[in-house]
Design a protein that fits this description.
By secondary structure, this protein is an alpha/beta fold. Helix content is 18%, strand content 30%. The protein contains four helices and twelve strands; from the N terminus they run E-E-E-H-E-H-E-H-E-H-E-E-E-E-E-E. Strands 4-1-5-6-7-8-11-12 form an eight-stranded mixed beta sheet, sandwiched between helices. Helix 2 crosses helix 3. It is globular, with a radius of gyration of 16 Å. It starts with a strand and ends in a 27-residue tail after the last strand.
């Protein structure tokens, strides 16, 4: 059985009503309770990194996410990061460079509607992300609306379609009968470059 690490950063998927409207507050463990298949199809450990609205995610936050993946890299088969949709594409692109090379899947997902709402897309997106994280497909991906898109590609699309890629078609669609692959040629790489004072995740890319 595969071991997956779920990293929560906030976003709409984790939002609950408050005195000023919806705000991220749901823990990673609380999110996982909406996915009953965990423990039966895969094991999941949870870490809450931050509780940020997507619009509040800054480049300074990316190294913290990358560091969490790096520190736990040898202990897990895949990683899922819950994230707000407004800046998910930016974070996915950043992690694609900060964590290279990768031999395991690092998945970002979120939702247009909080996971606690009956009509939420969050339950399907999170379940798809966890299943995809069990695949031996290396790299950073966004899983949204039944599609997998490589990390550098996604941009925030229309609410009806969620995340879309401006550069390429989705690599995968997930349906009730399984996963359909549209692309091939995935390469298996070694673990990410070591983090150190001279080589922190933030030094692996420049932000201008």
């Amino acid at each position: 059985m595969k071991n997956i690490l779920l990293l929560a950063t906030g976003g709409t998927i984790a939002s609950v009503p408050g005195k000023d409207g919806l705000a991220p507050a749901m823990s990673a463990d609380a999110l996982l309770r909406y996915i009953p298949e965990h423990g039966r199809l895969y094991n999941v450990d949870c870490v809450e990194l931050m509780q940020l609205d997507s619009s509040s995610m800054q480049p300074e936050d990316w190294p913290r996410i990358a560091e969490a993946v790096y520190r736990a890299y040898d202990a897990y088969d895949g990683f899922v990061i819950t994230h707000g949709t407004d800046t998910m594409g930016y974070t996915a692109a950043a992690l694609s460079y900060m964590l290279r090379p990768l031999a395991k899947p690092v998945i970002l997902t979120g939702s247009q509607i909080p996971i606690g709402y009956e009509q939420s897309d969050g339950r399907k997106n999170l379940a798809d992300a966890l299943r995809f994280a069990c695949e031996s497909v290396p790299g950073v991906f966004v899983i949204f609306d039944g599609k997998a898109i490589r990390g550098p590609g996604p941009s925030n699309g229309e609410p009806a379609t969620g995340m879309r890629s401006a550069a390429s078609m989705p690599l995968m669609r997930h349906g009730s009968t399984g996963i359909w692959w549209f692309g091939t040629g995935f390469s298996r790489h070694r673990r990410p470059l070591p983090c150190s004072a001279s080589n922190p995740p933030s030094a692996r890319m420049s932000v201008s």
